[in-house]
Amino acid sequence: MLLGQLERMNGEAMVRDVETARQVTTKILHLIQTQEKSGKEVMSKGSSGMEVILASLEVSSQTTLEFLCRGRRMGVFVSKGGTGILFQILTSASKELPPSEELMLQLHSLLAKVGPKDRKFGVKARLSGALNVTISLIKQNLQNAKLLLPCLQVLRVYSANSVNAISLGKNGVVELMFKIIAPYSKKNTSLLKVALDALGALLKSKTNARRAVDGSHVPALLALYLDWHRNDARHRHMLIRKGLLVCLRNITNIKLGRKAFIEADGMRILYNTSTECLPVRTLDPLINTSSLIMRKCFPKNRLPVPTIKSAFHYQLPHVLPVGPVAQLYSQPPGVDDVVDDSDDNEETEAETDTDNEEDEKNDDIETDLNKLHPTKSPGRPFEELRVYERFFLELSEDFQVRSLSSSSSSARSTRPIIVPTAQALSPKHMATPASQEIWNSIKGQHTQPPASATSRTPAASLASLELDTIHLTKDHDKKEETHIPTPDGHTTLSSSMHSPQDCGSEGAEDEGGEGAVLEVPDTALLLPLHDPDLYVEMVKGTRSVPQYAEVAYPDYFGHVAPTFKEPHLERVYGVQRSKIFQDIERLIHPNDILDKVVYDLDIPSCPVIEDSGESLKFNSQFESGNLRKAIQVRKYEYDLVLNSDINSNHYHQWFYLEVSGMRVGTTYRFNIINCEKSNSQFNYGMQVLMYSVQEAISGRPRWVRTGTDICYYKNHFARSSIAAGGQKGKSYFTLTFSTTFSHKDDVCYFAYHYPYTYSTLKMHLAKLEALRTPHIYLRQDVLCETLGGNICPLLTITAMPESNSNDHICQFRNRPLIFLSARVHPGETNASWVMKGTLEFLMGTSPLAASLREAYIFKIVPMLNPDGVINGNHRCSLSGEDLNRQWQNPNPELHPTIYHTKSLLQYLAHIQRAPLVFCDYHGHSRKKNVFMYGCSVKETVWQSNISATSSDLHEDLGYRTLPKILSQIAPAFSMASCSFVVERSKEATARVVVWREIGVQRSYTMESTLCGCDQGKYKGLQIGTRELEEMGAQFCVALLRLKRLTGLRNHQHLLDLESDIIGTQSKVVSPTTYVMEEDEPSFLEAIDYSAESDNEDAEPENEHGNNVHENPDHLDQLSDSY
Ligand SMILES: [Zn+2]
């Protein structure tokens, strides 16, 4: 009713009767305050009440303003265009001279409230000319706190818009704000706080930051910060102190700002003030912001290596002109690839509005429907593929001449056939006779008596003294194998096995004391498929680029999974911060820094360090080792540099190294300073792995999760743009961990994950032969030879036919194929452990295993990248390329394992025997649990905006069955983490190519966590080899259930059936993948580790990791994805 009256008044243009309007408005206001219901009515979106008020506002602004200032429904006000009207009033009122102070006060108070609710506020203000009104008001009322406060509040909102910030800066507002905030005074702190906020926002503009530097405001800000730090004894003005730091933080986003900060002794000032704040927990925001600024300003160091190119070079048979290797070696000599000339990307400021930031789009989803429809490509002509027939003898074997009861004879008789007549293929990349001989000798291990094995002289040319010695001692009585370290034979405890004589028995006898003679742990008893002697034999046939001649103890002794639980490490409060402070101290107290190089692959006589007893000794010159350099930074702290993948200048994450010469009970800190991934599970409970030789010889040969104070953060070592995909100003990341050693004179090993070398695989495969029963059909072929001259094994496992009757032979030949592969990425050793579980299950005696063998023919390439594994690479092969990006067009010379594996699949497609399931095992560094990636047109379309017809979307849900079963039976497996989206960046991976070109609907990547599980039976625990092997076995069980679910005869029928079982409504939306590196989606749970965050609320440390999001850091990852 009152509204009606007001409306009428407006309508009748009774402008003169201001007093009446005022009365009515007051009544409405009163009514709203006293009767909630009518209040809601007036303000609700549906009612016209707000329009009425707005209209009245235009007519008699002052009274209505009073009303609105008390209102709560700002959102409605904004949506009805209220902001624009306010600005109109403001600009027109400003033309009156002098403007009404009361009106200006009200208008600004109201704008200050409206501002944060209106995303277009900044643009509207600029377009209406309101910016200047507010600025001149501020200038004229510097002493008038009552009016100044709302004006500054509005200015604070204006400044959030980047275009406004630039324009305000041009009009002297930055200088104006500096006038308001200084000198130190506690007089009007609320005003000061708002002025600092506005200034902080203005300084986000690089032009303004430059202005602040030019005006010498950096030392002024620091001095002011010190004043507040000293005078705010009760910490009542933390927000002002924080405001000052935010200004500094934004200024130091530019290079000039960082320079000014360093010159003004900013590092020391912030370091000292932060240290003083440390005991007061409520001051954490100050410490965190200070540490952020210090990290940013910390002068970028060069990585302490002569070049970032791998310390080893491997001459490729030919180099593709556009490939990464050509790029790598095309730089003129003398170019320093470790650092860039400039360390900064100070791009010119974009004059665009930031009010309405577009939501980030995932542009990696495949949107080309033609590419989404699996179209079996003809691939290569069948004539070329025919040679691969020899790898599928089971599809033609008739078993007529052999007695089925004697499997060993059958196995033997097949041997001449298995050896592929390599010449028929391409002699260059198929197994050479030499390697074939090695392979045969490996296989000979289990069938031939030991005597004949030792009579062999394999790989004599490769074997170094060390290996020979091991070989010889192995031939003696076990008791004499005293090259194993003794507890106090310090000098004899030389790294690995390179000086067994030194560790001779006399040393042990002389010293006597604690446990004189020590024997090799009988791992053969603990580990049925491990044999140290056999391992050494295998190493002799393994060809590494650095020609390693040593054997690491863990691989020699083997690993027995511990029986105790290994829960995720709880993150200690403030750990990252305290580590960063220790790093900053290197700059503040340079005299405390030793900087003593104790290990260096780049010098020929590595390791050269004289043993003064003051330093640890390092080594990693053994299979899968990759330490390049170790520097003693402080007495008990070491910086470690990892070697790049061979023929590459980056990809460091995996590590495997040996340490000796330690003191018992002392805490050592280790920093791996050239990690590349932008985040790591080391921030979420994952520990490193340690193997103690002393523990091993005491009967506990095992890797255990170890390390405290673990964290992973961006460091001050500059990453060359050459290795960062062309981006400048990038840094490396540090993985830091601390540990104490519990045995004197121990030799310990640290690794990223449970090592699994190529020689281990060969030993394991040889041991698998021993599991063969008359009912098992096992064939080991050599698929091809790698670039490095190692053989790539191919296994065929199925059941022998029940008899040689036609029916049984027919059933045998017609079993569907399952194709498995693993370890294309050398750093993902967990994939090998899962594969080990699969292989042992398949060779097992359980009824399940027997049924499985009867149901399928398994084709398995257990290690797609032997060279990478051997040489300690993290991701690539010797060609310096990620082999899992070569599946579209593998080069037979450069990517032989991929080329021939793909050919096997192409051959199968040609003979209409494409596998039922293809799965490539991988490891995932940034997620927990085990999960799968598959390929689905429908789910890809759902994730994108492309329009598709319903026929495009016709797809059965068969691809979901296997992961679904796994989620039911495998405790580590998580369906929620699975994704079935096809990404552009993955179009050359095994999964996508096998799906698209070979036409395998169930084509997967199975990713196993490196860390542990956050669901299921293993929730809260770190993953171990037992769980990984179990996963491999469960994968087999799931395949059996897949078969039972389907009754398996005709593919199409079974797919339909599965759809029924799984249910077509299960629209689980999969997470899409933003991350281009690895085969992994972005990791949302994250700690802000980065020093370059623009997020106002992001502190370098967030202990709970909730309200902080990870910078997607796209470009950072691009470098890993080509
Ligand atoms: Zn991988």
From TrEMBL:
Its EC number is 3.4.17.24. It catalyses: C-terminal L-alpha-aminoacyl-L-glutamyl-L-glutamyl-[tubulin] + H2O = C-terminal L-alpha-aminoacyl-L-glutamyl-[tubulin] + L-glutamate; (L-glutamyl)(n+1)-gamma-L-glutamyl-L-glutamyl-[protein] + H2O = (L-glutamyl)(n)-gamma-L-glutamyl-L-glutamyl-[protein] + L-glutamate. Pfam families: Pepdidase_M14_N, Peptidase_M14, TPR_CCP1_N. The keyword Transport does not apply. Residues 473-483, 1101-1122 have a biased composition (Basic and acidic residues). Residues 489-499 have a biased composition (Polar residues). Residues 337-367, 1091-1100 have a biased composition (Acidic residues). GO terms for molecular function: metallocarboxypeptidase activity; zinc ion binding. GO terms for biological process: proteolysis. The active site is at E1007. Transmembrane segments: none annotated. One of its GO terms (cellular component) is mitochondrion. Keywords: Carboxypeptidase, Cytoplasm, Hydrolase, Metal-binding, Metalloprotease, Mitochondrion, Nucleus, Protease, Zinc. Residues 331-380, 473-514, 1090-1122 are annotated as: Disordered. Coiled coil: none annotated. Belongs to the peptidase M14 family. This is Cytosolic carboxypeptidase 1. The lineage of its organism: Eukaryota, Metazoa, Chordata, Craniata, Vertebrata.
